[in-house]
C-alpha cells in the first residue's frame, strides 16, 4: 500500500466506519443523558462556548452526532458533517428518535469536499470542531479556508483539540518511570502512518481496519492558517486536561477528564475562538 492521498482517506474511513458500532455501545459515549435531554459537552466546552440558542452551527467531523444533537437540544440549528456512512446513518436515526429533524441535518462528506456537499457559503454563526478532528486532516491551510467559507462575517470558530506538544509522546516509547516517551518531532510535518487494533473508547474491542494516517499540526500553524483564511484570533487557552486517556499515566477525574498524576507536566489540550473578519 502506498501512502497516496486516496490511500489515507480510504484507510482512515474504513477505520472510522468500524469504530461507529463500537462507540455506539461504549460507556465513554453514553447516550442516556442525550435521550433524557440533559446531555453535557465536556467541561472545557461548557466553560467556553456560551449560549447557542438561535445560532446556526456547522459541526465538522461530527462522528455519530452526539455533540451536534446536544447543541440542537439547546436550540441551535445544526448541520453535522462526517465522511463515515455508518456514523451519519446512526446520527440521522438518533435525530429522528429525539424528534430533532426540524433543527438538525447530517451530511456525509469529506471535510475537504464540504463546500460542494453543503454549499451555503457564509451561512453559519459558528463552526464547531472538537477532540480528535484536525489530526485526521493533512492540509490545515485548506481546512481553515473551509471554516472561513462557511462562517458569516462576525461568525466564530470554536476549536478544542489534543495539544500537539503532548502528541509527540507515546506510551510505546515509555521511559523507565512509566512516563510516555518522546517518539516524533513536533515539526514532523508528514503523515504518521500507524497500525493499531485497539480503540480508545473500548479496551475490549479489536479493530480489523488498523491502518490510519494522522498529522500533528503545531499550534502556530493552525493559528497562521486561520489568519490567512480571514479569521482573527479572539483567545487561545492551554489546558491540563483532555477527555480521553491520552497516556496510561493520566488519571481519570470525576468531571470526565484525564490529567497528569501529580505535577502539571505539559498541556494536554488547547481550545481557541477565532472570528471571521468583516461586518456582520
Ligand atoms: C474522534 S472523532 C471526532 C469526535 C467528535 N468530536 C464528536 O463530536 O464526537 C473524528 C471524526 O472525524 C471523522 N473524519 C476523519 N477524517 C475525516 C475527513 N477527512 N472528512 C470528514 N470526516 C472525517 C471520523 O469519521 C470521526 O467521526
Provide the CATH superfamily: Vaccinia Virus protein VP39
**Given the structure, what is the number of helices?**
9
Spatial ordering of strands, largest sheet: 3-2-1-4-5-13-10
Number of domains: 1
Percentage of residues in strands: 15-25%
Averaging pLDDT over every residue, what do you get? 94
Give a concise summary.
This protein is an alpha/beta fold.
Structure description:
- This protein has 280 residues and is of the alpha/beta class.
- The chain has a single domain (5-276), classed as Vaccinia Virus protein VP39 (Rossmann fold).
- Helices cover 29% and strands 24% of the residues.
- The chain has helices at 5-25, 32-35, 43-48, 66-73, 85-97, 114-118, 140-150, 164-167, 219-228; strands at residues 56-60, 77-82, 104-108, 124-130, 151-162, 169-170, 181-182, 192-195, 211-214, 231-239, 251-252, 258-259, 269-276.
- The strands form four sheets. Strands 3-2-1-4-5-13-10 form a seven-stranded mixed β-sheet, with helices on both faces. The protein has a two-stranded antiparallel sheet with strand order 6-7. Strands 8-9 form a two-stranded antiparallel sheet.
- Bound molecules: S-adenosylmethionine.
- Residues 12, 16, 61-63, 66-67, 82-84, 87, 110-111, 130-133, 136-137 line the site of S-adenosylmethionine.
Amino acid at each position: 500500500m502506498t501512502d497516496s492521498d486516496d490511500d489515507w482517506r480510504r484507510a482512515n474511513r474504513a477505520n472510522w466506519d468500524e469504530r461507529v458500532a463500537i462507540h455506539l455501545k461504549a460507556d465513554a459515549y453514553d447516550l442516556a443523558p442525550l435521550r433524557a435531554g440533559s446531555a453535557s459537552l465536556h467541561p472545557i466546552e461548557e466553560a467556553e462556548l456560551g449560549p447557542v440558542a438561535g445560532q446556526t452551527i456547522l459541526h465538522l467531523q461530527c462522528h455519530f452526532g452526539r455533540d451536534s444533537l446536544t447543541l440542537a437540544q439547546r436550540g441551535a440549528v445544526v448541520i453535522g458533517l462526517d465522511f463515515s456512512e455508518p456514523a451519519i446513518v446512526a446520527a440521522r436515526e438518533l435525530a429522528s428518535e429525539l424528534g430533532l429533524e426540524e433543527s438538525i441535518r447530517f451530511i456525509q462528506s469529506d471535510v475537504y469536499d464540504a463546500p460542494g456537499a453543503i454549499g451555503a457559503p457564509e451561512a453559519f454563526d459558528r463552526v464547531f470542531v472538537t477532540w480528535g478532528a484536525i489530526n485526521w486532516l493533512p492540509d490545515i491551510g485548506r481546512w481553515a479556508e473551509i471554516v472561513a467559507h462557511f462562517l458569516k462575517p462576525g461568525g466564530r470558530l470554536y476549536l478544542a483539540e489534543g495539544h500537539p506538544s503532548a502528541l509527540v509522546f507515546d506510551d510505546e516509547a515509555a521511559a523507565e518511570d512509566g512516563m510516555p516517551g518522546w517518539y516524533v518531532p513536533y515539526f514532523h510535518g508528514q503523515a504518521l502512518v500507524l497500525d493499531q487494533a485497539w480503540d480508545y473508547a473500548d479496551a475490549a474491542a479489536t479493530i480489523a481496519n488498523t491502518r490510519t494516517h494522522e498529522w500533528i499540526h503545531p499550534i502556530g500553524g493552525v493559528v497562521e492558517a486561520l489568519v490567512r483564511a480571514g479569521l482573527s484570533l479572539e483567545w487561545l487557552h492551554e489546558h491540563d486536561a483532555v477527555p480521553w486517556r491520552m497516556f496510561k499515566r493520566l488519571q481519570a477525574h470525576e468531571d470526565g477528564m484525564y490529567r497528569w498524576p501529580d505535577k502539571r507536566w505539559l498541556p494536554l489540550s488547547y481550545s481557541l475562538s477565532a472570528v471571521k473578519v468583516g461586518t456582520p
